[in-house]
Amino acid sequence: MSRKILIVDDEENIRSGLSYALKSEGYLVFVSDNGFDAVKKAREVNPDVILLDRMLPGQDGIEVCRQIRAKSDVPIIMVTAKDGEIDTVVGLEVGADDYITKPFSLNVLLARIKAVLRRRDSTASPDLATSESISYGPFTLYPQKYVAYLGEKDLLLTPKLFDILHLLVRNPGRVFTRDDLLEKVWGMDYAVETRTVDVHMTWLRKRVETDPSDPKLLLTIRGVGYKLAETPHA
Prior knowledge:
Layout: E1 4-8, H1 12-24, E2 28-32, H2 35-45, E3 49-53, H3 61-71, E4 76-80, H4 85-93, E5 98-101, H5 106-122, E6 134-136, E7 139-142, E8 147-150, E9 153-154, H6 159-170, E10 176-177, H7 178-186, H8 195-208, E11 218-221, E12 225-228
Parallel strand pairs: 1-2, 1-3, 3-4, 4-5
Antiparallel strand pairs: 6-7, 7-8, 8-9, 10-12, 11-12
Helix pairs in contact: 2-3, 4-8, 6-7, 6-8
């Protein structure tokens, strides 16, 4: 069965161009040109992926993402002309799984769509009681489900944040440079800047640290990169 993609963008040329390209790849495509209609379409269509523009008439992409995420775990890729740190963090905070800035390569977008679909498929596994887990310090992760706990607290991580934490938990004490993290978490198909790592780490710390400004678990090695503390505090 073909996967369904909802394109939300107020620019007709972008909607039509993406529709043609995605249909050529075998996807079923639905479109929306404003925020209010996007929320309605997401409910009616039940898409497998949503490509969501940041700037929309009616209500912006951040509010649309927040409303959709409140009812659904559908993968959302934020498509935006804004690439500042604040915009990225806000997008992650309201539940976007990934983001890509305009202008973008079609091949990069297709790779990201496939990546979020693979992650979603990987969660279609047995419940946590029968899923393999890995633990270190206060963390327990279920890689098949993309679920992570800090003690008893479900961290509710987006896939990228989970991938970062998963890598660090598997390698406690090892220092990863920003380039290391880009390669291992984003992969070679992702044309992103090293500051993307810093933005994601900032948000991950907000989820796991008691005081994100004074981290005890996810440590910065100045001028090098990041590591998970070898003896994490509970």
